[in-house]
């Protein structure tokens, strides 16, 4: 476990955490302006099957975070059932949550499992997470109850 913490700590130092948790709630990974998912459309993962940058002209706010969308239709789908589209762990890295940390989720490193969108920090981390998705989800679900309201930097200490 100490090795994992050391590896994740090193990764965290190389990742800019400026976009994490600076909005109103630390349980949502949003920029200092409140933008979630770096402006990627959360609905597009489900209906287009790819990471698609949304538009600042088509937005919706949920839990103090702003989401961008590619179309008005995607925005309407989100507004009808936002919890169906928001990534697990508020958009933080799923592997990081499994290890008890909050790292930025990369919108390009994603997977939908059982109709839930998961983001990961990097390609290497995504590959590791894919090696035991059910196990990592189970660990992250347990950890999330304890870390959801914590500042990301607090968890590295």
From TrEMBL:
Keywords recorded for this protein, A-Z: Signal
Protein name: YHS domain protein
Organism name: Phaeobacter porticola
Signal peptide stretch: 1-23
């Amino acid at each position: 476990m100490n090795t994992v913490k050391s590896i994740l700590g090193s990764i965290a130092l190389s990742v800019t955490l400026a976009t994490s948790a600076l909005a109103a709630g630390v349980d949502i990974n949003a920029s200092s302006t409140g933008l979630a998912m770096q402006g990627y459309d959360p609905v597009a993962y489900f209906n287009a099957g790819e990471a698609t940058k949304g538009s600042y002209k088509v937005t919706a706010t949920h839990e103090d975070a702003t989401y961008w969308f590619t179309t008005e239709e995607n925005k309407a789908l989100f507004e009808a059932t936002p919890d169906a589209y928001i990534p697990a762990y508020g958009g933080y890295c799923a592997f990081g949550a499994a290890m008890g940390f909050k790292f930025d989720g990369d919108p390009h490193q994603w997977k939908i499992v059982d109709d839930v969108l998961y983001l990961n920090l990097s390609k290497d981390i995504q590959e590791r997470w894919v090696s035991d998705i059910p196990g990592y989800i189970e660990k992250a679900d347990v950890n999330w109850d304890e870390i959801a309201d914590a500042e990301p930097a607090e968890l590295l200490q």
